[in-house]
């Protein structure tokens, strides 16, 4: 008896094309799609030119011709920033202008090719205490500024605050000195007498008393309200 071998039927070209299309479709469904780009970070208020950086502040560097030195740089706990192949640069206690020169020296470029700014002031705060807030409100310290400038930056005094009765409390714990209290009369400052408009330091507390029957708008009509 002669055995006759039977071959499996060869699929037609149309069937092969349909199967290939199904595989491609399945592969596309299984392949993870890339994540959408993260939304841009909220803008950070500009800091004073006299602001001295410390850990964990963040700097934004732009060094022309040195892409390895360009971008955000964290101030590390040891006070330095990382410039990659150009080594570590000590930054603690420096202003942006001082850091511009140090980064230029490390990168081997003229200072004119370096742009340095404080992108995030994270190391210190000033605390606002007063009507409208159940807890002290921590606002990033942006460098030496007077109480009036701080209040504007904080969004103005809350409704029910007394601008004639503001006190700055300075604990002086790190210095080992007694606590100091400065009375600030924003009503007098508004009239042109700025003698009580003290310059704030890191970790100061600005205490605003409640207004007892005096309308805030009578004193500071052009200040923003929250």
Strand composition percent: 15-25%
Number of strands: 10
Mean pLDDT metric: 80
**From N to C, what is the helix and strand string?**
HEEEEHEEEHEEHE
Class inferred from helices and paired strands? alpha+beta
Q: What integer value in Å does the Rg equal? A: 31 Å
Q: What is the oligomer described by this structure? A: single chain
Distance between the termini: 102 Å
Instruction: Tell me, briefly, the overall form.
Output: elongated
Put simply, the count of helices is: 4
Query: Helical amount among residues, as a percent range?
Result: 10-25%
User: Unreliable segments (pLDDT under 50, ≥5 consecutive)?
Assistant: 23-43, 214-221
Strand order of the largest sheet: 7-6-10-8-9
Largest sheet: 5 strands, mixed
Name the descriptors.
about 230 residues, alpha+beta, five-stranded mixed sheet, three-stranded antiparallel sheet, 4 helices
């Amino acid at each position: 008896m002669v055995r006759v071998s039977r071959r499996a039927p060869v699929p037609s070209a149309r069937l092969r094309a349909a199967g290939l299309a199904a595989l491609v479709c399945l592969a596309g469904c299984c392949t993870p799609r890339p994540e959408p780009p993260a939304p841009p970070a909220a803008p950070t208020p500009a800091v004073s030119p006299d602001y001295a950086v410390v850990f964990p502040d963040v700097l934004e560097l732009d060094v022309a011709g040195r892409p390895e030195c360009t971008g955000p740089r964290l101030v590390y706990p040891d006070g330095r920033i990382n410039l990659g192949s150009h080594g570590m640069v000590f930054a603690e206690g420096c202003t942006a202008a001082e850091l511009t020169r140090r980064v230029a020296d490390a990168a081997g470029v003229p200072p004119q090719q370096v742009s340095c700014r404080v992108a995030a002031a994270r190391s210190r705060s000033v605390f606002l205490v007063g009507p409208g807030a159940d807890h002290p409100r921590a606002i990033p310290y942006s460098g030496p500024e007077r109480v009036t400038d701080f209040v504007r930056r904080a969004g103005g005094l809350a409704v029910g605050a007394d601008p004639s009765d503001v006190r700055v409390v300075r604990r002086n714990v790190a210095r080992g000195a007694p606590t100091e209290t400065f009375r600030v009369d924003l009503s007098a400052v508004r009239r042109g007498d700025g003698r009580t408009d003290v310059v704030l330091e890191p970790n100061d507390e600005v205490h605003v008393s409640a207004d007892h029957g005096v309308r805030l708008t009578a004193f500071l009509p052009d200040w923003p309200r929250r």
